[in-house]
Design brief:
heterodimer, A: alpha+beta, 4-stranded antiparallel beta sheet, 13 strands, B: mainly alpha, disordered N terminus
Chain lengths: 281, 176
């Protein structure tokens, strides 16, 4: 540096060396680290498998719809009224959804899940239930309450299991007869995203949360719920909310980011998340 | 956090294996965190989380030459996050340096007091200046490596180093 700062440099070096010499870390357990890393990767793989399956089903539904249209010999007819009923495999709820064979929907500008795909939910409960099942990966989603109306907006509260006390509230909005009900966000008392920004490649977010071992998952999703980027941050634990601040990079070629999501992984390994909160990018 | 499953060697970029990376850098990284966080146990947690980020998402670091830089950056960020979310813990305990030669009790006490004052002043600097000074004056990293670790330009490293030292000098002058 310069002569006048030389003495400060010397003092700083001495102080840093002395401090470092005084610190004697315990031996780190790499086996525990590897086990935790494998568990995290397994969760990521499960989510990707689920999303791949959903995408495959969507393609099959689209092809089937096209064949129906051709066999009817009426190319002008787009949406048939031949609903298919889907029910979440492990849910205790009896909510069902209706899908049409329409494959191209108008972009009505409403941000929500699902995007412009073949999936159309004609009732709010079905949209919310399929969201917590397909996107959040709740093991046994249990709807504990609901608010709002069946006309424009509604909110549904889900526990990841019937016995769980923690909950996630899913907000849904009716975009109309073409696109139907979409999920506009999720929130939980376990965590909040208070501030966030996105510069095209990096999402910066902060807020507060509590999670097992203070480990909070951070994800960036596209409008179909596909994970574009995933990371972790540290917040509070044992029911005590603690602040977090983190960044997560998104591959510019990964698609259009839509949601940033925080949540807690399912410690049992049976589901992906036990709660989640989102913010729209 | 999640269920422990059968483990398999993580595939890190460039064929680096996690055990070797951990063995070669764990101690250094805990010491790095200790410049910002007094509690060594908390420093160990921060470092463990940094390794977990690399191991759980190996694709996040594509260049093998950047793995250590990434770890250092994650540790510095994690240490600062740990400071924000918890009480600062006990005040810095400065113990006798093992490098100290024969010195009188008065001299040793004065040296320890000066070292504590320097570290206290360091912790009051802006985050970026703290990181640059630690990486430069403890790890002796070149400007290019500091720039890569912190994701800033080499010129910015110089600026932060100078401003940090000037601020440190001013705070230590006030301390006298």
């Amino acid at each position: 540096m310069t002569d006048d700062l030389g003495p400060v440099e010397d003092r700083l070096r001495r102080a840093l060396t002395s401090r470092a010499d005084a610190v004697e870390p315990r031996a780190g357990d790499v086996a525990v680290l590897e086990a935790r890393a494998e568990a995290a990767r397994a969760t990521h793989r499960r989510r990707l498998t689920l999303l791949s399956l959903a995408a495959a089903l969507a393609v099959i539904a689209a092809v089937a719809g096209l064949l129906v249209a051709v066999s009817d010999d009426d190319p002008e007819e787009l949406a048939t009224e031949s609903p298919t009923t889907t029910t979440a495999p492990t849910t205790s709820s009896t909510t069902t959804s209706t899908s049409t064979s329409t494959t191209v929907l108008q972009d009505d500008g409403v941000p929500g899940w699902p995007g412009a795909t073949a999936r159309v939910f004609d009732n709010p409960g079905a949209a919310a239930l399929n969201f917590v099942t397909d996107v959040l990966g709740f093991a046994e989603p249990h709807q504990s309450s609901s608010e709002g109306n069946d006309v424009t907006d509604a909110s549904f509260t889900f526990n990841p299991r019937p016995t769980a006390s923690i909950a996630t509230v899913v907000d849904v909005h009716n975009t109309g007869p073409i696109r139907g009900w979409v999920v506009t966000g999720a929130r939980s008392e376990q965590g909040t995203i208070d501030e966030f920004s996105f510069d095209g490649t990096t999402v910066t977010l902060s807020g507060s949360a509590t999670a097992f071992e203070a480990t909070v998952a951070v994800l960036v999703l596209d409008q179909e719920g596909n994970v574009l980027a995933e990371s972790f941050t540290m917040a509070g634990a044992n029911g005590e909310m603690g602040p977090y601040q983190t960044t997560i990079d998104v591959d510019p070629g990964a698609g259009t980011p839509f949601w940033v999501m925080i949540g807690e992984g399912d410690a049992s390994g049976e589901g992906d998340m036990v709660w989640a909160a989102t913010a729209t990018l | 956090m999640m269920a422990v499953m059968a483990t398999s060697p993580p595939e890190l970029p460039g064929g680096i294996d996690l055990a070797s990376l951990h063995r070669d850098h764990y101690r250094e990284l805990v010491k790095l965190a200790s410049f910002l966080v007094d509690d060594v146990g908390r420093c160990e947690e921060v470092v463990q989380e940094a390794f977990l980020k690399v191991a759980a998402r190996p694709g996040a670091v594509r260049d093998p030459d950047r793995v250590v830089s990434y770890l250092r950056s994650a540790v510095l960020n994690g240490a600062r996050s740990a400071l924000r979310r918890k009480d600062p813990g006990p005040r810095l305990q400065v113990v006798a340096s093992t490098a100290a030669g024969p010195e009188s009790p008065d001299t040793a006490a004065a040296r320890r007091e000066d070292e504590a004052a320097v570290l206290e002043a360091l912790r009051r600097l802006p985050e970026r200046q703290q990181s640059v000074l630690v990486l430069r004056y403890w790890l002796d990293l070149p400007e290019s490596e500091i720039a890569r670790t912190l994701g800033i330009g080499a010129g910015t490293v110089k600026t932060h180093a100078r401003r940090g030292l000037e601020a440190l000098a001013a705070r230590l002058e006030d301390h006298r």
